[in-house]
C-alpha cells in the first residue's frame, strides 16, 4: 500500500501547483494499511486540516483510481493516535490558537482572529499564504525573510500577524516582536533622548527571535532609523532569525531609502497579494458572515461580491453596511436593501476624483487652487495640501506619480504627505474629526 501512496503523490503532483504540492502533499507519508483503510500521517494538526479541506477528495479519488476499487482514507497527526482511527474517513481537528489576543514579547498585540485558519485563500494570495506559513512552520529552513506587498486592505497585516500567532501557539515562550516601522522609529528616537540606545539595540538584536515589521515605507527619509534597522537586520539574518516585512510599495519604489536597507528588504522572498477574484470574494463574505452569525441570502452575497471588487476592506464595509441598515430599520436582508447600501459605495468611488478633492479642500481651508499646487511652504497651505493628497490616495485609484503631478509634487513628497496625515490622525483627535468632516462632505457631494 505504501507504493500506492507514492504513486498517488506523483499523480497529484501533476495536478496542483508546485508550491502547493511541496507545502501540503509532499510531507504526508504512508503510516499503515488496515484491511481496506489507508492511514496517512501529517506533520501537525494545521497541516492535517489544510489537506483535509483542500485535497481530501482529490486524494481519495486518486487512491481509488490507483487501486481500482473503493478505499477509505484516514489522516492522522505524526506520532499521535487520534479518534479518527475508529472513523475511517478523512477527519478534521481544529488547530490550537490562542483564545485571546496574543501579546508578543514586544510591540503591539496580535489580533486573535488574524490566524492562518481565518485567512481565505484564493488565486490572488495563495503563494503569499504558503510562503507565510512555510516561514512560520520552519519547513523551508533556508527561508528566513519575507516581504509582503499589496495595496491597503488586501490582507498583508493579517498574514503578518498570522505568522506571529502560529509561532506563539507552537511555542508561547518564543520572542515574537510585532511592530510598525513608525513604532520602531519612535522607540529609537526615545532611546536616543533618554540615553538608553544600548538597551534598544540589545532588545532587537539579541532579544528577538521573530520580527514582524509592518508598513516599512514609513521609513522613507528617516536616515538614522534606516541605518539602525539595517544593522539590526544584519544581526538577525546572521543568527537565522525570522523576519517579515509588509508594505504598499516594493523596496525599489520607496523614496529616500538608503541602499543598504533597500538591499536587506529585497534580500528575501517578495510576494504580492492581488485583489481577490469573484470566487474568493464570495468565500470571504461567506466566512465573515458566518463568523459574525449573520444570515445572508446567497443572491445578496453574490451581489456584494460582484459590486465590491477593490479589496477585502471594501467587502467588510459593504457587509457591515447591509447588516447595520437591516438591524436599525428592522428590515430583512434582501436585494433591495443591499442595492441601496452598495450603490452609494460604488458611486462614491467612481465620482470622487483628485480634482473634486482639491476643490473641496480648497473651499474648506479657504485657499485657492493656485495655492494648493504652488511651491508655498506656509503651514496654512502645506496642511491642506497634505490632506488633499492623503484623500486622493484614499478615494481614488490614481498612482502616486499621477497624484504628485496633479499637485506639482514629486513621488517622495506625496508619500511624505500621506505618512504625515496618517500620523497626525493617530495623534490628534481634532485632525481626525476634521478629516472625517471633509470625508462626509466629499461623499455627500457625489451622492
Explain what you see.
There is one protein chain. This protein is an alpha/beta fold. It folds into four domains: 85 residues, 2-Layer Sandwich (GMP Synthetase, Chain A, domain 3); 167 residues, P-loop containing nucleotide triphosphate hydrolases (Rossmann fold); 73 residues, Orthogonal Bundle (Helicase, Ruva Protein, domain 3), CATH 1.10.8.60; 94 residues, DnaA protein, C-terminal DNA-binding domain (Chromosomal Replication Initiator Protein Dnaa, Chain: A, Orthogonal Bundle), CATH 1.10.1750.10. Helix content is 56%, strand content 10%. The chain has 19 helices and nine strands. The chain has a six-stranded parallel β-sheet, with helices on both faces. Strand 7, helix 8 and strand 8 form a beta-alpha-beta unit. It is globular. About 5% of the residues have low confidence.
- Largest sheet, described in full? 6 strands, parallel
Estimate nothing, just give the exact number of structural domains: 4
Mean pLDDT over the full residue set = 84
Helicity level: 55-70%
| Uncertain spans | 80-100
Using the 3D structure, state the CATH architecture of the largest domain.
3-Layer(aba) Sandwich
Widest sheet: strand order? 4-6-7-8-5-9
Query: What would you report as the Rg, rounded to the nearest angstrom?
Result: 25 Å
Brief summary:
The protein has 447 residues and is of the alpha/beta class.
Amino acid at each position: 500500500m505504501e507504493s500506492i501512496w507514492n504513486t498517488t503523490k506523483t499523480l497529484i503532483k501533476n495536478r496542483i501547483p508546485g508550491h502547493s504540492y511541496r507545502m501540503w502533499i509532499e510531507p504526508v507519508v504512508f503510516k499503515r494499511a488496515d484491511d481496506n483503510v489507508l492511514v496517512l500521517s501529517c506533520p501537525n494538526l494545521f497541516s492535517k486540516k489544510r489537506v483535509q479541506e483542500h485535497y481530501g477528495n482529490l486524494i481519495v479519488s486518486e487512491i481509488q483510481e490507483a487501486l481500482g476499487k473503493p478505499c477509505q482514507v484516514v489522516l492522522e497527526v505524526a506520532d499521535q493516535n487520534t479518534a479518527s482511527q475508529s472513523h475511517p474517513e478523512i477527519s478534521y481537528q481544529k488547530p490550537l490558537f490562542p483564545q485571546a489576543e496574543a501579546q508578543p514579547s514586544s510591540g503591539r498585540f496580535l489580533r486573535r482572529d488574524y490566524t492562518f485558519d481565518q485567512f481565505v485563500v484564493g488565486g490572488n494570495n495563495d503563494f503569499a499564504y504558503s510562503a507565510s506559513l512555510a516561514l512560520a512552520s520552519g519547513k523551508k529552513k533556508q527561508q528566513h525573510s519575507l516581504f509582503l506587498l499589496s495595496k491597503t486592505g488586501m490582507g498583508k497585516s493579517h498574514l503578518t500577524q498570522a505568522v506571529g500567532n502560529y509561532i506563539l501557539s507552537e511555542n508561547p515562550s518564543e520572542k515574537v516582536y510585532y511592530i510598525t516601522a513608525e513604532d520602531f522609529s519612535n522607540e529609537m528616537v526615545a532611546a536616543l533622548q533618554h540615553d538608553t540606545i544600548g538597551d534598544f539595540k540589545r532588545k532587537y538584536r539579541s532579544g528577538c527571535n521573530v520580527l514582524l515589521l509592518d508598513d516599512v515605507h514609513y521609513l522613507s527619509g528617516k536616515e538614522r532609523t534606516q541605518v539602525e534597522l539595517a544593522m539590526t537586520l544584519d544581526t538577525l539574518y546572521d543568527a537565522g532569525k525570522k523576519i517579515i516585512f509588509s508594505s504598499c510599495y516594493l523596496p525599489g519604489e520607496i523614496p529616500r531609502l538608503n541602499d543598504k536597507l533597500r538591499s536587506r528588504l529585497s534580500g528575501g522572498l517578495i510576494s504580492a497579494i492581488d485583489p481577490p477574484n469573484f470566487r474568493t470574494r464570495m468565500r470571504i463574505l461567506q466566512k465573515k458572515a458566518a463568523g459574525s452569525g449573520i444570515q445572508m441570502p446567497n443572491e445578496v452575497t453574490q451581489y456584494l461580491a460582484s459590486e465590491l471588487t477593490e479589496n477585502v476592506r471594501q467587502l467588510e464595509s459593504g457587509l457591515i453596511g447591509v447588516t447595520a441598515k437591516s438591524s436599525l430599520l428592522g428590515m430583512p436582508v434582501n436585494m433591495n436593501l443591499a442595492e441601496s447600501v452598495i450603490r452609494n459605495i460604488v458611486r462614491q468611488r467612481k465620482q470622487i476624483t483628485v480634482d473634486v478633492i482639491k476643490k473641496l479642500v480648497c473651499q474648506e481651508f479657504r485657499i485657492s487652487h493656485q495655492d494648493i499646487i504652488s511651491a508655498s511652504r506656509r503651514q496654512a497651505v502645506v496642511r491642506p495640501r497634505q490632506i488633499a493628497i492623503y484623500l486622493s490616495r484614499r478615494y481614488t485609484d490614481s498612482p502616486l506619480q499621477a497624484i504628485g503631478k496633479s499637485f506639482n509634487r514629486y513621488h517622495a513628497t506625496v508619500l511624505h504627505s500621506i505618512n504625515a496625515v496618517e500620523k497626525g490622525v493617530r495623534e490628534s483627535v481634532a485632525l481626525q474629526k476634521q478629516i472625517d468632516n471633509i470625508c462626509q462632505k466629499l461623499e455627500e457631494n457625489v451622492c
